[in-house]
Design brief:
Layout: E1 3-4, H1 7-15, E2 21-24, E3 32-38, E4 41-48, H2 56-69, E5 77-83, E6 87-93, H3 103-116, E7 132-134, E8 137-139, H4 147-162, H5 169-180, H6 182-185, E9 193-195, E10 204-206, E11 212-214, E12 220-222, H7 224-233, H8 239-248, H9 255-274, H10 279-288
Helix pairs in contact: 3-8, 4-9, 7-9, 9-10
C-alpha cells in the first residue's frame, strides 16, 4: 500500500484535490480519529504521533488477513503516511450504515465462517508473521506448533512479567503453578482459526451494507474460543449472536470452563495499561484454578 509524505499529497492523488475538512470522531483512546471530507467524499483517518507510525502497519496486515478469508467485511485500507500537522496517519473507507434486521445473526454466521477459514497461508500453526498490538500494548506472535504453548509463552507470560510489581510472593507462586498446569485447562484445538484478537463491542461497526464489519484487529491464529471469550468480557453480545454462531461452528459446552482463562490475558493487559482496578479480577481468575 502506498505511503505518502503528507496528507495533502495523499488526498490529491485520491480525489484530485487537497482541500478538505476534518471533523473529530470520538470513541478511541489510542489514536486520534477524523472524518475527512474532500470533494464530497468521506474518508476515515486515524492519526498518531510520527514516532508511533508502527501502530498502523500491523493493523493493515490484520485487516488484509481478515479480508482474505472472504467471510466478514472490514473497511478498505486506502493509504498511510506521515504529515507535519496530523502525524502518522492511516486512511480507511468511511462506514456509516444502519443495522439490518438479522444483524447479529449474520454477524454470528460470518464470524464462525472466518474461524473455519483455512489459515495455512497465514502462519505455520499458531501465531502470526509479525507482532502487533493489543490496545496500546505490544503483542507477541512468535509461531508455535502448540496452542497451549503459544498461549502460555506469548500471551500470559509476557503480561504476567509486565505486571510483576502488582503481585505478592503468594501471587507469584500461584501464577507459576497455574502456568505449569495450563495444559490441564486448555485443549489443543481441532483446527487453527484466524482470530480478530480484540473482539469487544467497540471493535465492530455497522458497515455500509448494514452488516457487522470488524475494525481495530489484533490478529493472530489461535483457538476460536479466545475470540468468543473476548466478546463476553465486557457485557457480551446478544444471545442470538451466539446461537447463530453455533449453527455454523459448534461451541463446545466445556468452553465456559475455559472462558476466563482466555480473558485473563485481556485482564492482565488492562492491568498493565490502566492500573490496579483490574488486579482483583486477575486474582479471582487465578483462584478458580487453584487446587
Amino acid at each position: 500500500m502506498k505511503q505518502y509524505e503528507s496528507l495533502h499529497s495523499a488526498l490529491h492523488d485520491l480525489a484530485g484535490s487537497d482541500e478538505f475538512s476534518a471533523l473529530p470522531v470520538y470513541g478511541g483512546d489510542i489514536n486520534r480519529a477524523y472524518r475527512l471530507t474532500v470533494d464530497g467524499r468521506s474518508i476515515f483517518m486515524k492519526s498518531n504521533r510520527n514516532e508511533n507510525v508502527q501502530f498502523f502497519d500491523p493493523e493493515i496486515s490484520g485487516l488484509y488477513a481478515i479480508r482474505r478469508t472472504g467471510t466478514i467485511r472490514v473497511p478498505e485500507t486506502i493509504c498511510s503516511g506521515q504529515d507535519g500537522q496530523y502525524g502518522s496517519f492511516l486512511l480507511l473507507e468511511w462506514c456509516q450504515g444502519n443495522p439490518g434486521k438479522e444483524f447479529f445473526e449474520n454477524f454470528g454466521h460470518n464470524l464462525a465462517a472466518m474461524h473455519l477459514a483455512d489459515t495455512s497461508g497465514t502462519v505455520r500453526v499458531y501465531g502470526f508473521p509479525e507482532d502487533n498490538f493489543i490496545g496500546a500494548g505490544k503483542q507477541e506472535n512468535t509461531p508455535e506448533n502448540s496452542w497451549v504453548v503459544f498461549f502460555r509463552e506469548h500471551r500470559l507470560k509476557p503480561q504476567f512479567q509486565r505486571a510483576e510489581s502488582w503481585f505478592s510472593e503468594t501471587d507469584r507462586k500461584r501464577i507459576d503453578r497455574f502456568l505449569d498446569r495450563l495444559d490441564r485447562y486448555l485443549p489443543e484445538p481441532e483446527f487453527p482459526s484466524l482470530l480478530h484478537g480484540d473482539l469487544w463491542s467497540g471493535n465492530y461497526i455497522t458497515g455500509n451494507d448494514g452488516e457487522a464489519w470488524l475494525i481495530d484487529p489484533a490478529v493472530y491464529v489461535g483457538h476460536f474460543e479466545a475470540d468468543l471469550a473476548m466478546t463476553e468480557l465486557f457485557g457480551g453480545f446478544p444471545r442470538r449472536f451466539y446461537d447463530a454462531y453455533s449453527t455454523v461452528n459448534l461451541i463446545d459446552p466445556e468452553y465456559r470452563e475455559r472462558r476466563d482463562i482466555y480473558n485473563l490475558y485481556h485482564l492482565l493487559n488492562h492491568l498493565n495499561l490502566f492500573g490496579g482496578s483490574y488486579l482483583g479480577s486477575v486474582r479471582d481468575v487465578l483462584s478458580v484454578y487453584e487446587e
